[in-house]
Structures are given as C-alpha cells and as structure tokens.
Amino acid sequence: MTTADRTTALLDHALASAQHEGRLPSVVAGLVRDGELVWHGAAGTLDGRAGGPAADADTQYRMGSITKTFVAVCVLRLRDAGRLDLADRFEEHVPGSALGGVTLEQLLTHAGGTQAETHGPWWERTPGGDWDSLAASPAGQRFRAGRRFHYSNVGYAALGRLLEAHHGTGWADVVHSELLEPLGMGRTTPRPTGRAAPGLAVHPFADVLHVEPEHDAGAMAPAGQLWTTVGDLARWAAFLAGDTAGLLDAETLAEMCEPHHVVDEPGQPWTGAHGLGWQVWNVDGVRYAGHGGSMPGFLAGLRVRLEDGDGVVTLTNTTSSTAPRGLAERLLQVLGENEPRPVAPWSATGDPGLLELVGTWHWGPATTTATLAGEHLVLGEPGTGRGSRFARTGEDTWVGLDGYYTGEPLRVLRRADGSVSHLDLASFRFTRVPYDPAADIPGGVDDRGWH
Description:
Elements: H1 3-21, E1 26-33, E2 36-44, E3 61-62, H2 67-80, H3 104-108, H4 131-136, H5 153-167, H6 171-183, E4 200-202, E5 209-211, E6 227-228, H7 230-240, H8 250-256, E7 261-262, E8 272-274, E9 279-283, E10 286-295, E11 298-305, E12 311-316, H9 323-338, E13 359-363, E14 366-373, E15 376-379, E16 388-392, E17 397-400, E18 409-414, E19 420-425, E20 428-430
Antiparallel strand pairs: 1-2, 1-12, 3-6, 4-5, 7-8, 8-9, 9-10, 10-11, 11-12, 13-14, 14-15, 15-16, 16-17, 17-18, 18-19, 19-20
C-alpha cells in the first residue's frame, strides 16, 4: 500500500467511524488542498436503512447557514463596486423595516442586536412569507446595536433583501450569476434537484428515523436555503482559501476573515469569533475560517486553515449530532500527519540594500531586533508584544501588517550623508543607541545623559 493509499484508507475509516458512532444516516466529506478536492468519501445510505441508496459525490444536501457566506460575499462585492458602505444604515438601502438603524457591518457580523429568529412559527420547518410580511412583523432588538455578538438569522434575511434592492432580482439569482455560475458550482441550488438526500431526524434513544419537511423559506431563505454537493462545497472552500477566480479582491477576502466580534461563552476561553459573513476560530494559535450549517434534517460544515489553505467540508442528513465537528478535525489531522505539505528549500532571496536596517534598535531604553523575512522588515516577534511585520510602500517608507502597528507608517530617517539616523514608527523613534542625542528624540535628551 502506497502512502497515498494508506492515507485514503485512514480517511475512509474516519468517515465510516463517524457515521457509525454518530448514528448519521449518510455523510459525505471532502478535503481541499491547493484549491483542489484531493479526497472525498461517503458513508451510510440516504434513507438510513441497510441496503438503501448510497450517498455519493453528486448527492445534494442542504448547507443551512453556509448560505450566509454567499450572501455576505455578494454584499462585499457591492461595497467594492462603490455602491454602498458598510457603515451605511440598512434603511438607507431598504426603507420601511424595524431594522433600519442597524449598519450593514453590524448585520454581517451579527452585532446588530437583532433578534435571532422570527416571531412566527418555527421558520426552518414552515414555508416562509415575503419580505413585506417579515418587515411588518414586530422586530425585537435584543441588545444595543454594536454591543455584542448575537447570531441573527433575521439579519441575514435583511441582507438578502439588500441584494434584491440593488440588483432588481431575487437574492438567489444574484448568488447564482455572481458566484455559482462563474465558479462552476452547477449543483448548488435553492431547492433540491437531481439526486438529493432526504432530511431525517434520528431518535435520541432508539435507532428509528423521522422525516423532516422541505420547503421554501421565503424571505428567510438567505439565512439557510441553499443545497449543494461535496464537490461544489469544496470549490467554495477553495474560494475561501484564496482561489476566488477574480470574483473578490484578496484584501477584501482577508478583511472578511478578520475577527470582528468574539463569540463569548460564559466560563469558556475565547476561541471563536465572527467576521464579515465568515466564522473564525483560533485553535491553539492556528486560525481557521469557514461556517457551520444546520437545518431540520441536515448538518453541514466548512473549515479552512488560513495559513496554508487546507480545508474540509462535511454534509450529513440528520438534524442533530456532534459527530460532524469531530469528523472535520479528524480528517484535517489525518491529512496533515500522513500527507504533510512539502517544505520549500531555503534560498538567499534577501535584498542586501536593506542590510542597513537590520540589527539592534532602541525605543527609549527598550531593545528590539530588526530582521528581514522575504520582502518584509520585521521588528521584534509578531504575535508577541508589539512585534510586527512591515511591507515596503516607497523608498524609505513601510506600513505595519500585524498587531499594534497594523496600518501604521514606518519611515526611515537619514542623515545628510545618506546614512540611516533613526526609524520613525507612528511617532515613536527607534535609534541605534538608547536616547541617541543626535536623533531628534521627542522631548529632548537630558543634558546629563546617562548618569
């Protein structure tokens, strides 16, 4: 058995174990690396019965709230096109609802304080009405807008309506024309088509099944309507990993994955947050982005490790189970342990013209070290204190990329003879010796010097 064969066997075993131990009628999963679906598998049967039809890579499952990430990307495309600003109030684009005072950014990040669910019957199991009906219902403002994270399906119904207002067509048509069609995601649809898994619930105390309803959620559909396959969802994971096919600027994608509001669970450390449409996790210092999804009869998951783009997708047709989350973590672990990414050989690619900037610098009496890492100047250790990387923006100008100095300017100040005198970083002076009297230290240097 080759290494690849052994890895496949381990992945298939992990999938089968999750299906058995989690009592999942059927489950499909895939792994993405370098923008490609490098493994996919299926276990169980669509109807949950022995000998029933098997799941495969072309079987549709409902993705639930992963739908929200498509809506969010379309909103950011409008922002990038100059048609709206994230600081805009919702009412500036869609007047006539109780959500009007909440900003678009707050809706995207679930920080608008908006009610989580509708006032009517359980919307996930009943056909939905139109936007006018939803907008006319009494809206519950649970918290002051901007105060905290509070997940809101109603908020994403509003963002779907925003897309319709700007494009003059249904939100699903916008998602299809702007994202699904150009990405080749032909098996992602608002309602099930072709081969599709039925939504099932498994009894908590017995091995028996219950069929869940399937319907059009109407105005609430942008919160969780889309159906997809493992192959199509893997393409969306590749999008999140950076292969956007030119549909979204890399800087915008990075902005969407920044943690805006932590998910605060009492008594638990902060490991999760929400960005502009994407969920973000910090697992032992490793950043992931993606989204989970659940609707009656279905669970879905998408998670990408941001540092290298390895991703995992899972789809199953059961209403409730903890197995899919553990499965996703296990699949990524198996891939990493058995198929490690190749290590690029070191080579001397540094710019010798920048050597005058490296070495020891002093901010007052504090000492830091400047190094070169590829195209970046690095002060200290990023992630520790005020350590940061800097990208060059001009002959003697740089901009911070990390932590405290993100977006802050760094200037190299020179003497008349062209040699480097000191660094000016967001008004702080870094000198070669502590409080160098020749370096124009703000506030001056005591005439007695060190004594």
